[in-house]
Amino acid sequence: MSEKRVASGASANLLELRGLKKHFPIGSAIPLIQKRKTVKAVDGVDLTIARGETLAIVGESGSGKTTLGRVALGLQHPTAGEVWYDGTRLIDRSAEEQRQLRRKMQIVFQDPFGSLNPRLPIGDQILEGLVVHNIGTSAGRREKMRASLEMVGLPAEYAVRYPHEFSGGQRQRIGVARALALDPEFVVLDEPVSALDVSIQSQVLNLLADLRAKQGLTYMFISHNLDVVGYFADRVAVMYLGKVVESGPVDHVFTKPQHPYTIALLSAVPKIEAHDTADRLILEGEIPSPINPPSGCRFRTRCWLREQLGNPERCATEEPALAASPRDLDVAVACHFPLEDGAAATTKAGRTAAASSKAKSKA
């Protein structure tokens, strides 16, 4: 980790999210009769990311992953809650301090095609951030731009080319170069390899890992690909309908999952050696509307464990808090009936045994 990342007095956690909410109002209200509806995209999230760490955010489409990343960066203002960066609450910083902070917080977008301006050479697009923040001289900025291209494995001569002249993997490298040209500390990677061919994904992931090691970067890695998360991330937070339902070190959560939703996600991961998919756990139905989420546990309407336990009333009336698991203090889980051996529950026989054991303990 570089020296400036561990300066004296620096906070151990680079980013903290406290009770974060982001609601989007939709439609119009009828005065005195009907309130305006809101989409609860993020609805009470508490997370920390340590310096030099990669925290993965996973979940189905509509779980709030991308919105969480955008609010963490300040691209969208939270409806409630707080974002702390380097030990200071963002709202307490002056406008100039927040502008300077933009240099330290960057994003790499999911779409390497749509995130670049087709009418500008890529060199000019990398230069844009340096110009906006008035960094260095004109000659110094151009040297920084060329160095950023070379840092991601592209020749500096490519600066005069246009986006359509590059492959998808090269465009994503350009997006990485643009983000890193400002020497950030924290980078949100929003599905950075999902639009790329599998043969190119590993190249981009290895590049991001090398840059993290060399520059001491801190990543929020948003993805739906659990295999990629297992390879790339240090910790993982599983989101469902705007809330985190399980979080902890990747090797803990993926080898001994405790939340029924995490177990379902892991069960759905294709396995090369598996010839029979009968054991795979397929969640029924779509994720409920974030406009009117279910009462109690938000996952209860699709929860296979609740069904096998006889639909206990507690799941519908009491919302489970995200709390440290007594079985593994490094893992936090939001479930009234967390499983002791979630890995076994990825098979049909294991789920039956787990539900039977949980029913006995509940009785």
3D architecture notes:
It is a single chain. With 363 residues, the protein is an alpha/beta fold. It folds into three domains: 1-28 and 36-104 and 184-254, Rossmann fold; 119-176, no CATH class; 256-362, no CATH class. The chain has twelve helices and twelve strands. The strands form two sheets. An eight-stranded mixed β-sheet has the order 6-7-8-3-9-10-12-11, sandwiched between helices. Helix 6 (198-215) links the parallel strand 7 (186-190) and strand 8 (218-222). Helix 3 runs parallel beside helix 5 (168-180), helix 4 (138-151) packs across helix 5 and helix 5 runs parallel beside helix 6 (198-215). The longest helix has 18 residues, at 198-215. The N and C termini lie far apart (51 Å). Residues 1-8 have low confidence and may be disordered.
Strand content: 15-25%
Structural class by sheet pairing and helices: alpha/beta
The helix tally amounts to 12
Within the CATH hierarchy, at the fold level, what is the topology of the largest domain?
Rossmann fold
